[in-house]
Amino acid sequence: MKGSKFLLPALFKTLILPPSLFTLLLLLLPPSTPWKIIGYILSFPIVYIVRSNLSVYLSTRRAKALGARDIPRVKGRWPLNLDILVDWAKSGSEEEVGRMMVLLKRRWGGSYNTRVLGEDQIISSDPLVLKHVLLDDFDNFVKGEKFKDRAVDFLGDGIFNSDGERWKFHRSLMRPFFHPIHISPQLFAPSIQRFLSSLPTEGEAFDIQKDLGQLALEMAILWMTGEHLSDSTSSDHTRGETGYTFKDDVSIEWEEAKRHLGDAMTTAQRVVGKRVKIGTVWPLFELTHDPLIEPMKTIRTFFKPIIERAFKRKGLTRETDEREEIHFIDRLVDATDDRKLIEDQLINTLLASRDTLASCLTFCVYVLCLHPEVGSKLREEIRSVAGDENREVTKDVIRELRYCRAYINEVLRLYPPVPLNIRRTVRPSLLPTSQGGPPMYMPGNTSIILAFILMQRDPAVWGEDVDEFNPERWMNDGLGKREREGYMSWNYGPRMCMGQPFALTVTHTFLILLSRHLDKLQSEHKDMRFAFDVQPQGTAIPSAWTTKEGCDGRARGGKDRMWVVADVVLAIKGGLWVRFDHDHERTK
Ligand code: HEM
């Protein structure tokens, strides 16, 4: 049975052990039926409470022996902090969980232990702790076997799903092709241009978040494989000389898989996310059907012929070695003959790139509409450096755009696409703390949630103007300690994002071309604005959240005008609805 490695011990510990122990005790009591029933029922909470107190006692003793202290334990209103579990379950939505994390942080500080149901669960937004986890004690904080167990049907043996030597192997296999030399703005500019030209300009509202999701998928696939998702008759498909003869052998199944690839990826991510939330007993929720079968069939059907063709052109590619023609997949087939490994790497890279990139582009557009004065400055710089629409977007042009780079950094600070990360200790660890004093003791085999978003919105780290969208803070020569150690949107340490050059190239290219597009529309007195009037019901931001007093730690101190949620990545609830319009009244 799937997941039984962890499921069976967990079931034994929670369902079998407590009544067994109690039955033993009952041997000493009169064997009357009511006693047996009461004893059976009480055995569960009693064993939980005993186990919980014992682990607290042992942990505190070990901490003292090492000259450390405990990580503050949240004291809920009910035994075993069941009230916190109920609140989390009741909140039902990620943004409420986010708010709870903010409130718990206010009460318990930068690092705390929720200890729901007697299990240690650390949450931290202290930059020193995050650095310790991701860099200083890197080998001790892993993704872990439990995560792998939940994600293996989707991610296989890929970089996201591995630790230790296997992770090093993946990283070194992939690293060469993530070098900026293989990432050119010219590769992405035509797709972005096509995307912008397809947007309605006669005042119709559209959900640009959804459209950017598709654009990000297309660009990731293009860079990885050379395939044009939006255009089945593209030149790549007919370039027989270099092996791109796909158009001839394309099948109906493949066309179907291509059409549903984005949805299949989203479904697979949600299934794994749900398994992670349910925890060890997830297989019990999938007894009747495996929700990953269908999406994985679609994803594999899509990649299979692409991998086969990459093998066919392996020799040809080497002979011609025209760098622009070589894609990520060609490097993979050069490095290994293992088709399953190649498929896993492609799926892992697609997972890493699509939603994060879409989230980054979405919030770049969101901030343009939210803070028009910042948007004007950004467009002014782009106009002066790259305004001429005949000027090709090159790496040199991008390098000149200092404000644009600062703008992207500030978007990613306040709206990190990956707002939380998670790691698990192999052995106990001593966590440093920004408050000073002795370190905190973290037991082995314990999870820690790294709350990047809380750290990047913390006035203690970023100063009192933390909620202001201010790209200027990134414009100093050389980054300060705060910018280096209080900013982890790309992760930190050896496991830092490999796709940073890719994502930055795409985002710069997108902002340049968008800015030119907006300039053109401006000559017709049109501008891009929020289309609040068509926001789907129930997804408009509650009005109380748009004031500093009413937002209660949410909505960037009341500055947001859309409801920001952590779905698969950070996103806008219900979509980012905008229109190109000169009718001010309709969008107010
Ligand atoms: C703005 C966009 C992006 C952001 C904010 C971002 C952020 C991150 C973060 C936080 C991680 C760590 C995840 C973890 O520890 O589980 C990560 C890992 C990774 N990212 Fe990105 N990413 C972005 C775009 C991309 C793109 C476009 C690609 C590929 C083309 C990519 C490739 C990777 C890979 C391969 C890893 C795994 C690194 C490892 O485990 O050693 N990322 N990224």
TrEMBL record:
<dbReference type="InterPro" id="IPR017972">
    <property type="entry name" value="Cyt_P450_CS"/>
</dbReference>
<keyword id="KW-0479">Metal-binding</keyword>
<feature type="binding site" description="axial binding residue">
    <location>
        <position position="497"/>
    </location>
    <ligand>
        <name>heme</name>
    </ligand>
</feature>
<keyword id="KW-1133">Transmembrane helix</keyword>
<keyword id="KW-0812">Transmembrane</keyword>
<comment type="similarity">
    <text>Belongs to the cytochrome P450 family.</text>
</comment>
<dbReference type="InterPro" id="IPR001128">
    <property type="entry name" value="Cyt_P450"/>
</dbReference>
<keyword id="KW-0472">Membrane</keyword>
<keyword id="KW-0408">Iron</keyword>
<dbReference type="GO" id="GO:0020037">
    <property type="term" value="F:heme binding"/>
</dbReference>
<protein>
    <recommendedName>
        <fullName>Cytochrome P450 monooxygenase pc-2</fullName>
    </recommendedName>
</protein>
<dbReference type="GO" id="GO:0016705">
    <property type="term" value="F:oxidoreductase activity, acting on paired donors, with incorporation or reduction of molecular oxygen"/>
</dbReference>
<keyword id="KW-0560">Oxidoreductase</keyword>
<keyword id="KW-0349">Heme</keyword>
<dbReference type="Pfam" id="PF00067">
    <property type="entry name" value="p450"/>
</dbReference>
<dbReference type="GO" id="GO:0005506">
    <property type="term" value="F:iron ion binding"/>
</dbReference>
<dbReference type="GO" id="GO:0004497">
    <property type="term" value="F:monooxygenase activity"/>
</dbReference>
<feature type="transmembrane region" description="Helical">
    <location>
        <begin position="7"/>
        <end position="29"/>
    </location>
</feature>
<dbReference type="InterPro" id="IPR047146">
    <property type="entry name" value="Cyt_P450_E_CYP52_fungi"/>
</dbReference>
<keyword id="KW-0503">Monooxygenase</keyword>
<dbReference type="InterPro" id="IPR002401">
    <property type="entry name" value="Cyt_P450_E_grp-I"/>
</dbReference>
<dbReference type="InterPro" id="IPR036396">
    <property type="entry name" value="Cyt_P450_sf"/>
</dbReference>
